[in-house]
Design a protein that fits this description.
The protein has eleven helices and nine strands. With 306 residues, the protein is an alpha/beta fold. α1 runs antiparallel to α11 and α9 crosses α10. The chain binds flavin-adenine dinucleotide (FAD). The site of flavin-adenine dinucleotide (FAD) has 23 residues, from β3, β4 and α5.
């Protein structure tokens, strides 16, 4: 049994952040902005926007972040990868972010289009090098990625942990994890992280499952274990999106509850540009809209369901 919060008394104090991807079409842009409006009253610590492989979404990521900065009071965080780019190009993008008032970067290596990975001859080879480079450009707040089940290209779990330490020592202030499903995976990882002398927050990345088949494919690539229990829970729901959504919220909320029972107070949600699941999960966890935004939140809720 997982421990749910008490039905009376103070709700637990949790902090959340939400991750979005830059929209490709006007329709996707409308969907993204409905999601942002809906989630905004939950006062996330930051909202981040991903950066496509090899800079493929460079302009769209930039435009999305600038609009968030300009039109909301949310703190935008720009994902930035260094794969297949020179240091000069990456530095230039970072400078543009700073000039646009974006102060938080999620610094990543990214995935190469051709395997095996080879650093760009004039580029930052790994995320740790990128963190160092960013520190030279401006006083960014920097987050990095962490892998509770080890990055698939790492020579060993210990080498991957050493790499995380390098990223933190280079100046990253927090790590956000790859998604995982079993809380025990996160707890074991945290034990190793703390034993390695890493003290920064390691924020669990939570992926509410929207498409089980895609999840299997993606997890095989990124090395995340999908427990057999999930196959059973999503069985027969391929053509039943409503039930799938309810199951998905339940699974993710239980996962978060188990983490909270062990003292975790911060979560990063991979929203896939949809607010409904993340909002419902946050509600179950006890997170409520800030009082002054309740009216706006209701309007945004109506917009999304209309
Ligand atoms: P690194 O920390 O550089 O590590 C990559 C691999 O190299 C690891 O196996 C590491 O152990 C190894 N390594 C590190 N240093 C060395 C060295 N000196 N010698 C040999 N091996 C070394 N991808 C995108 O394209 N866009 C995004 O917006 C994006 N956002 C993400 C957000 C989060 C929270 C997470 C968890 C991942 C995200 N990714 C994104 C995916 C990420 O780019 C890939 O997982 C990528 O393969 C690794 O990036 P990294 O920053 O973890 O790399």
């Amino acid at each position: 049994m997982t421990a749910f919060p008490p039905l009376s008394g103070q709700p637990p104090e949790i902090q959340v952040s939400f991750e979005f991807f830059p929209p490709k079409t006007p329709e996707m842009e409308t969907q993204l902005w409905h999601a942002i409006e809906r989630l905004k009253p939950l006062k996330p610590r930051f909202v981040s926007v991903t950066y496509g492989a090899g800079g493929s979404t460079r302009e769209r990521t930039h435009a999305t972040l600038v609009r968030i900065r300009r039109e909301t009071d949310l703190e935008p965080a720009a994902h930035l990868t260094c794969v297949e780019a020179s240091r000069a190009e990456v530095d230039d993008i970072a400078r543009r972010y700073w000039q646009a008032g974006i102060r938080h970067i999620v610094a990543l290596r990214g995935d190469a289009t051709a395997q095996p990975y080879r650093p760009h001859p004039e580029g930052y080879a790994y995320a740790a090098d990128l963190v160092q480079g960013l520190r030279r450009i401006a006083d960014f707040e920097i987050s990095v990625a962490a892998y509770p089940e080890t990055h698939p290209e790492a020579p060993s779990p210990q080498a991957d942990l050493d790499n995380l330490k390098c990223k933190i020592d280079a100046g990253a202030r927090r790590a956000i994890t790859q998604y995982f499903f079993e809380p025990a995976v996160y707890f074991r990882f945290i034990e190793r992280v703390r034993a390695a002398g890493i003290t920064v927050p390691i924020v669990p990345g939570i992926l509410p499952v929207t498409n089980y088949r895609q999840l299997l494919k993606f997890s095989a690539l990124c090395g995340a274990t999908v427990p057999p229990r999930l196959a059973y829970l999503f069985e027969g729901l391929d053509h039943d999106p409503e039930t799938r959504k309810l199951v998905s919220a339940t699974v993710a909320a239980e996962q978060c509850q188990a983490l909270m029972a062990a003292g975790v107070k911060e979560f990063h949600f991979y929203t896939l540009n949809r607010a409904d699941l993340a909002y419902a999960i946050c509600h179950i966890l006890g997170l409520r809209p800030a009082p002054e935004t309740v009216g706006a939140e209701r309007r945004a809720g109506r917009m999304e369901t209309s």
